[in-house]
Design goal:
Layout lengths: L7 E10 L2 E11 L4 E5 L6 H8 L7 E6 L2 E2 L7 H7 E4 L11 H11 L5 H14 L15 H13 L5 E5 L7 H16 L3 E5 L3 H7 L2 E6 L2 E6 L1 H7 L3 H9 L3
Parallel strand pairs: 3-8, 3-9, 6-7, 7-8
Antiparallel strand pairs: 1-2, 1-4, 4-5, 9-10
Helix pairs in contact: 3-4, 3-5, 4-5, 5-6
Amino acid sequence: MTTDQPILEVRGLQKQYGRHVALAGIDLKIAAGELVFVIGPSGSGKSTLLRCLNRLEEPDHGQILFEGQDMSGKKNDLNLLRQRVGMVFQAFNLYPHLTALGNVTLAVRKVLRKSREAADAIGLAALRQVGLVEKAGSYPNELSGGQQQRVGIARALALEPKVVLFDEPTSALDPELVRSVLEVMRDLKRAGMTMVVVSHEMKFAREAADRVIFMAEGAIVEQGPPEEIFSHAREPRTRAFLSQVGA
């Protein structure tokens, strides 16, 4: 992890839906190789922040910089941004008529313009990375929820992103399937992937995160190393939230 130029930075990020302020001027720097865990109550702006980071949602104001380059202008190549900043969703969003390999390689062929042979090689490598290469020919309805989510992660990895955003990646899974997804995320962390994770997996945050951010009402209330936030939070709102979730 480096503390030089951040790989991803937001300055004064604002987003409003009608009268509801989802993001109230977020400033955030993320270093290469850092795993940043974002926690907070429902409606605090966590998912909106992630969706703005790769422009699935358009911010009303503010800047998004990737490796120092402003990516928030309307003339920027969104496909290029989303290639560099991948996203894994709560819902698996797999195409039911495509195999695991087909789901992983679709964007490789459409976005990267790779031949089917080259895309398949990339897709198999991504599936191997998440421990599912033997399921390459399986359809989503033949996979468990945990396996489907790992295919979703492989789909993001196949585009060779420098940052991966995870929006509640385990919340749709049965408890016994959560571990396999978290283990893939641990492996990515060990390999140096930059990750921003929105999740309620507090034990994972304690063990794996470099930094924990607590959000409330569209703002960053407090942030710091996991031990500091979980054991010595300064802000009453942070302490109240952690008490409610049993962290």
